[in-house]
Amino acid sequence: MDVSELRRQHRELTVIAHRLLQAVENSDVQQSVGAIRWQLARQLMSHLALEDRIFYPAMHRLADERARTTAMKLQAELGALAQDFSAYMHRWSDDRIAREWAAFCADTRDIIGKLQTRMDQEERQLYPLAETVGQDNMPLSKAG
Known about the structure:
This protein is mainly α. The chain has helices at 4-24, 33-60, 65-78, 81-91, 94-99, 101-133.
């Protein structure tokens, strides 16, 4: 299974998340966090849709039990990221960010930590399995 598109998206998400973390470390740039947050939201939701609608179901159909079990375990542990991120975006309007900057920064660090955990575990555990046992499946880089 070709996971190169998912890996490419992880790299892009990492760059955007890093920019957002840099922004929350500098209270002088409060105005710029909105654009970075929405850029991250668009990229993340697109990525999660590809994973949750195509990649994980494909992993669940593999004949290799270890691959299926690993995919199910990670999806169960990390699968709430889309809901968590959506709730984060809804919680923080521009006005609320300005009023509660410290709380916003803490919440931002938390959600980016969850994102990084998911990407790290997928990169270390799941993608290598997909590449090894999913050789005959459709490449994800051509899906969606």
